[in-house]
Amino acid sequence: MGRKLDPTNKVKRGPGKKARKQQGAETELAKFLTDGQYEVLLSPNELLPIERAAKKDKKLKEALDLESDEDDDEEEDDEEEQKSDAEMDEDDTIQTNTDEGERFRLPGAEESEMEGVTPLDLKSIHQRIKDNIDVLCNFSTKREPGKDRTEYISLLKKDLCTYYSYNSFLMEKFMDLFPLSELVDFLEANEIHRPVTIRTNTLKTRRRDLAQALINRGVNLDPLGKWSKVGLVIYDSSVPIGATPEYLAGQYMLQGASSFLPVMALSPQEGELVLDMSSAPGGKTTYIAQLMRNTGVIVANDANADRLKSVVGNIHRLGVTNTVVSNYDGRQFPKVMGGFDRVLLDAPCSGTGVIAKDPAVKTSKDEADIRRSAHLQKELILAAIDSVNAESSTGGYLVYCTCSITVEENECVVDYALKKRNVKLVPTGLDFGTEGFTRFRERKFHPSLKLSRRFYPHSHNMDGFFVAKLKKFSNVIPTAAAGKGNRKTTPQKLQRQRQL
């Protein structure tokens, strides 16, 4: 019986084609490395998590490109790769020192001074991060006698900034936002790009037909998830996904999964008057149009005239016929036009949820940027509320969203709007995501903020995002002269009168 027909008779016949190519490449590379460097290179356990993630991603892409083969040597190579991936996955988990008797010790003054002159290598810093987090998670039993928790936190913050290349301000924000056990997962997720996703344009085709057409062109894809009826996730493509005949014909839009969410929360109805206050580049606007089946009227506004060019281009390509494009500062929009059934405000923000797309955020954002964004967002959300018609028979809704995860740009802004206008928070209709904060450190927000939703890259495999949906129940704008007590009770009275 031949070897292929008898799985019990496994005879090793030497390296296959892939193994021989790899050995040849390693032989050439060894000419330029010392013995010590070469040994480190060959050991997968010596790779940093960021390097392992890149290597693993590369292997996955190569595996998708290769066609299935009956060659036994190829099968053996695949088994070895799977074992290597499994070993790397095990090594990715937070581990402590193997010697239980060896406790993590904070560096002394002399060691800290030496690090200032000769910084530690990234591998040593990564190990210290893992050990430090282990101590902080079991502080009462593993701390060094006489050492305070703040000393461990200070060292951890410094090491995380060095290892992941963040500035001190932003790292402190994230350390306040996430538990230590979750923090590293978030930072690691920011080192890997999110999956490429597309939205089917149901004005021109169905998802199943689009998927079949793309598969025939060599695109490897899957439905995005049960929560979306129009999304597809692209794993691999033999053709540029932004230049296929289907794309040029307007059958789909390249769009991040997280930007589906605010439109789904808005839930526009046919025949309504809808405002997209910050519409560029047009992904959300065209999604609204397809949900409305090209009925009613959409006003696609953006303050940046140059960015509106992409909105116009996408509107034409996707066959949208119910949209008017405008170029106004959103803060002035109530003076231009009002009476909308629904308004979508995707507010300009610091971009702390899309670091994987824009790594410059790691070092470019500071306290002034967050304050500046929050101030603009508060002005925009009031203008958006004033543009909504509370008397609408079908609507009266506003959806506020950002691609930031800071509390100052999300819960603080919505809480401000609840105090300044006659609005209330309502469920978003999204059946996944993390509840918004009702209390954060010394801040306390309105209890209904738990109805808002947060999305994180490490939890939901999409860009960091915040979505809140508000219902306007009166067109009356509370005046600043009203007393504090009146501001609290007036919206409640108006709501009771409306119910009667």
TrEMBL record:
Residues 186-473 form the SAM-dependent MTase RsmB/NOP-type domain. Its main location: nucleus. It is found in: Nucleus, Nucleolus. Keywords: Methyltransferase, Nucleus, Ribosome biogenesis, RNA-binding, S-adenosyl-L-methionine, Transferase. One of its GO terms (molecular function) is RNA binding. The active site is at C403. Residues 10-21 have a biased composition (Basic residues). S-adenosyl-L-methionine binds at S278, S279, A280, P281, G282, G283, K284, D302, D329, D346. InterPro entries: MeTrfase_RsmB-F_NOP2_cat (IPR049560), MeTrfase_RsmB-F_NOP2_dom (IPR001678), Nop2p (IPR011023), RCMT (IPR023267), RCMT_NOP2 (IPR023273), RsmB-like_ferredoxin (IPR054728), RsmB/NOL1/NOP2-like_CS (IPR018314), SAM-dependent_MTases_sf (IPR029063). It holds the Pfam family Methyltr_RsmB-F. Residues 1-27, 61-120, 481-500 are annotated as: Disordered. Residues 65-93 have a biased composition (Acidic residues). One of its GO terms (cellular component) is nucleolus. One of its GO terms (biological process) is maturation of LSU-rRNA. It comes from the Eukaryota. Belongs to the class I-like SAM-binding methyltransferase superfamily. RsmB/NOP family. This is SAM-dependent MTase RsmB/NOP-type domain-containing protein.
